[in-house]
Amino acid sequence: MSKAKKLISHKTTHFKGAARVPGDKSISHRALMFGALTIGETIISGLLEGEDVLDTAGAMKAMGAHIEKDGSGLWKVHGVGIGGLKQPDTPLEMGNSGTSTRLLIGLVGGHPIKATFTGDASLTKRPMMRVITPLEKMGAQFEASEGGRLPLTVTGAKHALPIEYRLPVASAQVKSAVLLAGLNARGTTTVIEEKPTRDHTEKMLRAFGLEVEVEDLADGAQAVSVKGQQDMKPCAIDVPADPSSAAFPAVAASLIDGAEVRLGRVGVNERRNGVYRALQQLGADVSFEYERVEGGEEVADIVVRGGAVLKGCTIDPAIVPSMIDEFPVFAMAAACADGTTHMSGLEELRVKESDRLMMVANGLEACGVKLEMGEDSLTIYGTGKPPKGGAEIETALDHRIAMAFLVLGCVSEEPITIDDAAPIATSFPNFVALMNDLGADIKGI
Ligand code: S3P
Fold it and tell me: Which long-range contacts does 65-72 make (Cβ < 8 Å, 24+ apart)?
């Protein structure tokens, strides 16, 4: 990550236009990883070229894949086949990226190779026991830092054992780590999830020619199963725009009178689009146009018009996994709404790139917002107008905290400064340019 740089966001009254936010981060990681498990050429268009995804590309190259970008912007991956990953010569540097780390720990865990994972000051604080526990059952061995954290060395199973595993936390990363280890197991690996989390792994494994079964269980949970040691076939992946990134201009538009933005070809997979449903519940004018399925993923143009009256509401905890990364920016909208917005079931926010519940609460309080934070909940008392602002926000190496408060600065009475813009490059490298093109006033200081 580059050096800390402060940014300041001033109030704007004009926010209009069409934009295409960069490619989906979750899908980009998986496209590179799965391409690396095939023999032949996988072609990826619209890949997110953020630091997190480039770290995944670096790791896959270190494990034997050939990955390059051609002159027309397409990424081409020549893989090694399932079971063919090579032992990396040096530690895998995962930067800020929890998704790269947990999914790759799964992949290495199912291969007879050893790899060490390291990361930045945020990633080395994040819990890895959630992947270590099931992967040990599959035969992988771990030497981790205190509390099951990075730096961590995995010695993958010589013959990975297929397991059936019920997720103790709602996590697509853990689900994916186990399924990816299962790709090289002799038999069928099953992950059971009680709350539906993003299903890009399942969908994309199918696109690569694998059979993935999804079964609804009597208790309401879902079982996802994949048979190991099948051949994956290379394919073409066209990555949709990231709904998590699109949420930043979408929230800004919903808060600015007279605003109108169209965000093109955004992924609106039901397990990812919760923030748009939550914004509609607040009263925002958000619609999906030209809904269609492309490459197995639902996409749409998201159109947001400002000026609607926003009223506080209670968010159903059942939709939390479908908007897990969008709570910081959703909280900015709630802070401008009239009345109380209550959000619960947020315990996973505490173990993201930062403790997001705390960072959001601290930042909003510094901007003059009244709220109450619980262990896993946040209640925001909106006054029906944007807060005072005028604060410098600590971002704790968290891209989404940084972008969320810059969005609030577009409407707060006084400008909002963030202490470090560097992490924005992990997921949305052109965030400032895109927002300013639409009318925001965000600049370095
Ligand atoms: C992701 C899953 C989510 C999400 C992360 C990306 C993925 O994490 O927060 O940004 O691509 O699988 P959890 O699985 O920890 O909820």
Answer: 65/32, 65/35, 65/36, 67/32, 67/35, 67/36
152 domain residue, yes or no: yes
Which pLDDT value is given to residue 296? Answer: 85
- For residue 37, the enclosing domain spans 25-238
- pLDDT tier at 295, thresholds 50, 70, 90: confident
CA of 172 to the centre of ligand 1 (A): 6
Based on the structure, what is the number of domains in the chain?
2
Distance (angstroms) between ligand 1 centre and the Cα of 173 equals 5
Using DSSP's 3-state secondary structure scheme, residue 212 falls into: strand
For ligand 1, whether the C-beta of 402 sits within 6 Å is no
432's tokens: 């400032």
Kindly state whether residues 228 and 245 are assigned to the same domain.
Answer: no
Decide: 125 and 98 in contact? Cβ < 8 Å: no
Tell which residue, 325, 320, 362, has the closest CA to residue 196: 320
Residue 2 belongs to some domain of the structure: no
Choose one of 238, 256, 276: the last residue of a domain: 238
Query: Token pair of 144, please?
Result: 């981790």
Tell which residue, 438, 431, 425, has the closest CA to residue 13.
Answer: 438
Q: What is the pLDDT of residues 64-93, one digit of tens each?
A: 999 999 999 999 999 999 999 999 999 999
- For residues 45 and 241, is the Cβ–Cβ distance under 8 A? no
How far is the CA of 371 from the CAs of 157, 259, 280, 357, 377, in angstroms?
48, 27, 22, 12, 11
Atom of ligand 1 nearest to the CA of 103: 12
The residues near 314 (Cβ < 8 Å, ≥ 6 apart) are 341, 342
81, 231 contact by CB (below 8 A): yes
